[in-house]
Amino acid sequence: MQLKIDLHVHTDASNDGVSTIYEIIRSAKSKGLDGVAITDHDVPMTDEEAIKISKETDFLVIPGVEISTASGHLVVLRPRRAFPTNPQFLETVKNAVSDGSVVIIPHPTDPLSHGVGEEAVRSVLSFSLPLEVMNASTLRRHNRSAIELAELLALPKVGGSDAHVDTAVGDAYTIVDAGARSVEAVLEALKSGRTSAHGTQTSITTMLGMRWKRLSKRAKLKKARDEVPS
Fold it and tell me: Between the N and C ends of the chain, which has fewer C-beta atoms within 10 Å?
């Protein structure tokens, strides 16, 4: 079964995200996706949350988190523990893998997006972690270098939009060869490397719209803080 999954999506639970989970899912459905992984910055989605929302929306939601490690960002799908602030990269990978979670290295060669870089990727080569080689929010040259690195090291390739607004969801995605339409089947396929990366860059128009909404979100938060009695 070929499933079209966006493996890297942020909601308004991320401080720089501007769309609700329900807006995200509505957009994902309209673009023909079979599922999304919710990977908010250092805010893990639990299995219980994912199951509840999946049932409410009749859509596959994979719980995850994007961890800000000391070396850069790391995506963990179905996290099984609370990770400390600014954890060490290698220790985080070891712990997540031992928990049975799926670990993805996002935008690995993009320093502007907190990519961990080639040296860090090589340090965990024995785990055969998938590399995100198609990220709709990063520059094309960084995606090209990520593809080259994945091919050099014979690592699985995945794609994700890195969307922080609903209209960007699905701009990049992964085709997963899964045995069923379920979180368990998708994660097992990812562990086995049965994936391919697809998509394109998010448009300038969408990016500008996201930045406007982000400014509006910050202004509302500031107003709310200012109105709190001292």
Answer: C
The DSSP letter of residue 41 is: B
Task: Give 183-220 as a DSSP string.
Answer: HHHHHHHHHHT-EEEEE-PPPHHHHHHHHHHHHHHHHH
- Give yes or no for a contact between 105 and 96, defined as CB atoms under 8 angstroms apart: no
Is the separation of the CB atoms in 160 and 9 below 8 Å?
A: yes
Q: What angle do CA 36, 39, 45 make, to 5 degrees?
A: 95
- Candidates 176, 174, 172; CA nearest to 163 is 172
Q: Give the gyration radius of the chain's Cα atoms.
A: 17
Domains and CATH numbers, the chain: 2-202 (3.20.20.140)
Query: How far is the C-alpha of 62 from the C-alpha of 60, rounded, in Å?
Result: 7
Are the C-beta atoms of 153 and 126 separated by less than 8 Å?
Answer: no
* Model pLDDT, residue 131: 98
- The CA-based dihedral angle spanning residues 208, 210, 211, 215, taken in that order and rounded to the nearest 10 degrees: 140
Please count the other Cβ atoms lying within 10 Å of the Cβ belonging to residue 223.
9
- Indicate the pLDDT class of residue 7, thresholds 50, 70 and 90: very high
Question: Of 190, 199, 128, 187, which Cα lies nearest the Cα of 159?
Answer: 199
The 10s digit of each residue's pLDDT in 130-156 is 999 999 999 999 999 999 999 999 999
Indicate whether 221 pLDDT > 70: no
Q: pLDDT confidence of 87, banded at 50, 70, 90?
A: very high
